[in-house]
Amino acid sequence: MKSIRTKxxxxxxxTVLATQLVVGASSITLNYNSTITTVEQMMSETAVLAAExxxxxxxxxxxxxxxxxxxxxxxxxxxxxxxxxxxIDERVCTISSAGTLSALTVSAFLTEMIILTAxx
Length: 120
Prior knowledge:
Blueprint: H1 4-69, H2 72-75, H3 81-98, H4 103-119
């Protein structure tokens, strides 16, 4: 038969172990829920910021397209392609120096516009 000391020690160890398991499980659950809530909040804020940035970029592209569309030489079939290219390059320098869009992006965008208008 076991001694009383062994029984008390065993009961104490089981109690401490059970308590540690309960505290550990609740700690893990609380940390997980807190992390998920924080990530959801951060993703929502990031999505709003990204949407605003995209809206600004699209507005800038629209403004470039509208401004470039007002240049009559770009639509004129009698104007040589080299002259159109120099007009585009001049516009690229002007727009990229304003810092709104990069020169490479504006150049590609305006070149695509010329190609599309030439095919119409």
